[in-house]
Design a protein that fits this description.
The complex is a heterodimer of chains A (157) and B (306).
Chain A (H helix, E strand, L loop, with lengths): L2 H11 L4 E6 L4 E6 L2 E7 L7 E2 L5 H5 L2 E12 L7 E15 L5 E12 L2 E12 L4 E7 L8 E7 L3
Antiparallel strand pairs in A: 1-2, 1-10, 2-5, 3-4, 3-5, 5-6, 6-7, 7-8, 8-9, 9-10
Chain B lengths: L3 H12 L3 H10 L19 E9 L2 E6 L2 E5 L6 E2 L3 E2 L16 E3 L10 H7 L5 E4 L13 E4 L5 E4 L2 E6 L21 E6 L2 E5 L7 H10 L5 E5 L6 H4 L6 H11 L3 E5 L13 H13 L14 E6 L1
Parallel strand pairs in B: 3-6, 6-7, 7-8, 12-13, 13-14
Antiparallel strand pairs in B: 1-2, 1-15, 2-3, 4-5, 9-10, 10-11, 11-12
Helix pairs in contact in B: 4-6
Classes of the chains: A mainly beta (157), B alpha/beta (306).
Chain lengths: 157, 306
């Protein structure tokens, strides 16, 4: 496989969205989320701790802090309204099993911007299968109509 | 819209016609790990100048006179949460003696196990790896030293040289495209004894001939013989039993021990198929023990007595 093809596959996989469950005060809806990692510092890896965008699972899940940018699209709530949100934040990953390749968890804080304004969020996640699958719960107590977002995270690198 | 990928995927899943799906099915229905009847507790053999203990897969504990070397330590019960172990490790890592060196041939899950390196962390001061692996390994207390092809690590009379093999790097799929040098074989030399460790390799006569030119008096060759099937999928990265014997001849080693079979489910090979095929090939070529010794998992063999 050529590096160009591998890079194309990586770029394509970044387009695969993570399904969201959006739970507000008076509604339950769905959505899709994506994530990019402009910068990650891995304190669990033996060499080259600073990574940008293309981050191997062991660098992230053996212990790291990342700056992430996450566009999210909420839909399907009663009433039919859809909306976009962009989130940027810091997330700490810590390993649990097999240096994080089999199981790791995360704790994060982010700032979001949406049509209705912005605010702060906190998130807690757990990941397995080299970080390909995970469950991440984000609480945004000050955002109208989006109190809690549960994401089945899907990420390849 | 192109929909042929959907048909390919659907037919693959429906007919068991694709290898990854068959491997998944075999792993889901895998029997419990077979126990090893008599696991050796103390691997020191005072009567041996060279002894080899096959822990399973590519994990071999070598005794060369008074020192020990461990290859590709993998004591895991599953690989990547998918591939199940068929036979328990033939040696308890808790009983490992102090190791002069540990080598890792490449970073596929069946050769580089992070939890297994945790088990050897207090037994060794150095783990030798090919280029590109250190940035894909967690922190440990031992030194992780990268050796490029023909580079040598030397300490207290032990020389470890990185030698060429034909395989593929990476760990998670697409990273193979960027880790183009991240696989190797090794030759260990100590007190006039020399051992070749092939790790995981396809049959490439040029690699074996070059290694023989550099190391014309190999005492032992540890050569992978599996996975074999499906051959079209495996042939570019794995030699089969007949090719392993060809490699043994090209290397000019005095003895050979086959490795890399009957430990994990990572192919279409039935349990026992690879050593059986090796046995047939040996008979057709007039080879037998001690030239080629097929060890059971957990078995230790003295190859050069004192």
């Amino acid at each position: 496989m050529s590096p160009w093809l591998a890079g194309s596959i990586w770029a394509t996989t970044q387009l695969i969205p993570s399904p969201l469950l959006v739970i507000g005060d008076h509604h339950v809806g769905g959505g899709l989320g994506w994530q990019l990692t402009p910068v990650l510092y891995s304190f669990g890896i033996a060499e080259r701790p600073l990574r940008t965008f293309f981050v191997s699972p062991i660098a992230r899940h053996s212990g790291s802090v990342e700056l992430h940018v996450s566009p999210e699209w909420a839909c399907c709530a009663p009433g039919g309204a859809t909306s976009w949100l962009v989130r940027a934040g810091l997330r700490l990953y810590l390993p649990l099993i097999e240096h994080g390749e089999e199981l790791s968890w995360s704790l994060g804080a982010s700032y979001y911007r949406a049509a209705g304004g912005g605010g702060a969020s906190a998130d807690l996640g757990i990941y397995s299968f080299n970080g390909v699958l995970g469950l991440n719960v984000t609480v945004s107590p000050w955002l109208t109509r989006r109190e809690l977002i549960a994401a089945l995270t899907i990420r390849y690198f | 819209m192109r929909i042929w990928p959907v048909f390919v995927l659907a037919s693959c899943l429906a007919s068991s016609g694709c290898f990854p799906w068959r491997a998944l099915q075999r792993n889901l229905s895998a029997p419990a790990e077979r126990a090893v009847a008599h696991r050796i507790r103390d691997p020191r053999r005072p009567e041996a100048r060279l002894a080899a203990l096959w822990v399973g897969h590519a994990t071999v504990l070598l005794q060369m006179d008074d020192l020990f070397v461990l290859t590709d330590p993998v004591f895991s019960h599953t690989l990547a949460q998918a591939s199940k172990r068929l036979v328990e490790p033939g040696f308890d890592a808790a009983n490992l003696p102090p190791l002069a060196a540990v080598v890792v041939s490449h970073m596929h899950f069946d050769h580089l196990s992070f939890s297994s390196l945790d088990l050897v962390e207090t037994r060794t001061k150095v783990v030798l790896v090919p280029p590109g692996i250190r940035s894909n390994m967690p922190r440990y207390s031992f030194e992780i030293r990268e050796l490029s092809r023909w580079q040598v690590y030397e300490k207290d009379g032990l020389r470890v040289s990185a030698v060429p093999v034909q395989h593929v790097g990476g760990r998670y799929g697409i990273d193979a495209a960027f880790e183009t040098q991240a696989f190797t074989g090794y030759v260990f030399e100590y007190h006039g004894i020399s051992v070749y460790f092939g790790g995981d390799t396809a049959y490439n006569p040029e690699d074996f001939e070059l290694t023989r030119q550099h190391f014309p008096n190999l005492s032992l060759a540890l050569l992978p013989i599996c996975p074999n099937a499906p051959r079209g999928f495996m042939e570019h990265t794995h030699e089969n039993p007949a090719q392993a014997l060809d490699a043994f001849t090209l290397l000019g080693a005095k003895q050979m021990i086959p490795i890399h079979f009957d430990t994990y489910i990572n192919s279409d090979d039935a349990f026992g198929a690879c050593p059986a095929q090796l046995g047939r090939e040996m008979r057709s070529r007039g080879l037998s023990a001690p030239q080629v010794s097929i060890l059971g998992i957990g078995e230790q063999r003295v190859l050069i007595p004192r």
